[in-house]
Design brief:
2 copies of one chain form a homodimer.
Chain A: H1 4-18, H2 27-34, H3 38-50, E1 54-57, E2 63-66, H4 75-83, H5 110-127, H6 131-151
Chain A binds a DNA duplex (30 and 30 nucleotides) through residues 3-5, 24, 26-28, 37, 39-40, 42-43, 45-46, 49, 56-64.
Amino acid sequence: MLSKKTKYALKALIVLAKEYGQGPVLISDIAQREEIPRKFLELILLELKNQGILQSKKGKGGGYFLGHPPAQISVGHVVRVLDGPLAPLPCVSKTAYMRCRECRDERTCAIRMVMKEVREATAQILDSTSLADMLRRIELAVNGKEALSFSI
Amino acid sequence: MLSKKTKYALKALIVLAKEYGQGPVLISDIAQREEIPRKFLELILLELKNQGILQSKKGKGGGYFLGHPPAQISVGHVVRVLDGPLAPLPCVSKTAYMRCRECRDERTCAIRMVMKEVREATAQILDSTSLADMLRRIELAVNGKEALSFSI
DNA sequence: ACAAAGTCTATTAAAACAATAGGATAAGTC
DNA sequence: GACTTATCCTATTGTTTTAATAGACTTTGT
């Protein structure tokens, strides 16, 4: 299950992707637009900054902005930074592998085999989807919706 | 992340699938074979029984056994029963759908679109994998391993 | 100097997770 | 019908994670 933290982060990043190249955006603005508790969002953005996903400027005229173009920031990266590994089990994680203490033989563990498939499928989707992809899909959906209401 | 509860459950179910048709198996036996805390396992098996996945017999000569053939019990079903919906977000769950309180428009939410893909991929894998499939894969791995050591 | 912003550390409340404890109930055995 | 073996059921506990709040600190522009 995706934590609220990560959900908030993705919402904030989508806002920042929309504003990319137009200067810093205030925490308060993002919090208000997306109905995220202001102080909580502060912590989240700070963490994203420390991980190099965001950059910031202090003082008047300051705020947050993406550290890279929207096409270069993947959902998978964001989820891993805030929620940890995508893998359902540590023993199938590529980025944070850990042997199961009680596992006698990893090679013959069926649970592991199945969960490895799940990890791969999840990573495939999340690592190949960028903020830019999300913006594009939002736009498509908005246009599709308009076209639909228009046709009624 | 898969909970220990569900991991224990799957291990227990694999044992019971191996013994399918050969009468009841004791909780204690399963606990010992798989190094699962005895009392914790009790709760888990009870829950699986109440969900119709297992059946049991009390008293001497009693124990637990599968309620259906191993080929008819899917990993997805077990995970849903113990860990809840597979979906990373309630708003993309088929079995436990819940609208996001703060979502203005579900149709244009990019986070939702991406997580829907993840849910679908996960369900595809877990719902199409049965206990029988897992047994088969274990056997294949064991044989493969033997062949490997033999060739050295 | 002052105001506006992000930065940092600590704390707290609530929920979920993992496990333990102990008596209740049912079924077989002698 | 007493005894033993097993599951059944409810409650409780300790730990960790999640979500959020609070407040003082630092930097920057005017």
